[in-house]
Design goal:
The chain is mainly alpha-helical. The chain folds into 2 domains: about 60 residues, no CATH class; about 210 residues, MetI-like (MetI-like fold, Orthogonal Bundle), CATH 1.10.3720.10. Helices cover about 70% and strands about 0% of the residues. The C terminus is likely disordered.
Length: about 290
């Protein structure tokens, strides 16, 4: 009987502890989501409702989708969307390819200066892009990778500074290190060369890490504002963040349109994350070699 009481007490304490933990997590989540909820609420409020009323109202009284229709017709959001997709897609693709190609030899091959090269790559994480932005901009101008020369070159100028990252190389190196060497050795015995081992054996086993890198790269590229706003000169080449920021000049008093444009710009990020979620949370290479 005493053991049963002790067991019940332990379970009750654990239950109370879980309630506190979940309450804190829910509170932090609500605080994190509040700016997005406020933005969504503003985008759905009609012209007759005061968006700066105090106390603020989250649920719109004059519910309408007119702000989304209005901003869609007032600016060329579809053009901005296509430009952002080209830039984000190119950045993600190059990051996956180049980071994998750089991470593989750092994880699997032995060569002189390997550790120095790896730590030098990691050191670049501490350098903010703003610190190297001027020389990168001058290089872009010297190579004529600006939209004033050609639209295609303009896209290349937007993509190349972010085509590979130290975080991506580090992430892929760690993913390759986690794969048992027996898998690689078995493929070599079966007659695969180094490139075939890399493409047909190792890459399929690091899909979760590739998905993580793709998600972070896509979010960073899609939301990038500083670099496009500096490099781009043609409005037809604007990406969504630059185009949405341009709304503030066109509709300085219409915050509903600005909120609607901001919500539209976040939709692709949500869709991309949901599409990659199953890879993001999975570990496909667990238990690859057993017995």
């Amino acid at each position: 009987m005493r053991k049963l009481k002790i067991l019940n007490q332990v379970q009750n304490d654990r239950f109370i502890k879980n309630i506190w933990i979940h309450s804190i997590l829910i509170l932090v989540s609500l605080l994190s989501l509040f700016p997005f909820i406020w933005l969504l609420s503003t985008s759905l409020k009609g012209a007759g409702e005061n968006i700066f009323a105090y106390p603020p109202t989250i649920i719109p009284k004059d519910f309408t989708f007119a702000n989304y229709v209005g901003v869609w017709h007032k600016v060329d959001l579809m053009r901005y969307f296509i430009n952002s997709m080209i830039v984000a897609g190119g950045t993600v693709l190059l990051n996956l390819i180049l980071s994998s190609l750089a991470g593989y030899p750092l994880a699997r091959m032995e060569f002189k200066g390997k550790k120095i090269a790896f730590f030098a790559i990691l050191a670049t994480i501490m350098v903010p892009f703003q610190a190297i932005m001027l020389p990168v901009y001058l290089i872009t101008l010297k190579l004529h990778l600006v939209d004033s020369i050609n639209d295609t070159l303009g896209f290349i100028g937007l993509i190349m500074p972010f085509a590979v990252s130290a975080f991506g190389i580090f992430l892929m190196r760690q993913a390759f290190l986690a794969i048992p060497r027996e898998m690689e050795e078995a493929a070599i015995i079966d007659g695969c060369n180094v490139f075939q081992v890399f493409c047909k054996v190792l890459l399929p086993m690091v899909k979760p890490s590739l998905a993580v890198l793709a998600i972070f790269t896509f979010i960073g590229s899609w939301g990038e504002f500083l670099w496009p706003s500096i490099v781009l000169t043609k409005e037809a080449m604007y990406t969504l963040p630059v185009g949405v920021n341009n709304l503030q000049g066109m509709f300085s008093s219409n915050w509903r349109f600005i909120a609607a444009g901001s919500i539209i710009s976040t939709i692709p990020i949500i869709i991309f994350f949901l599409a990659m979620q199953k890879y993001f949370i999975s570990g496909e290479n667990e238990g690859a070699v057993k017995g």
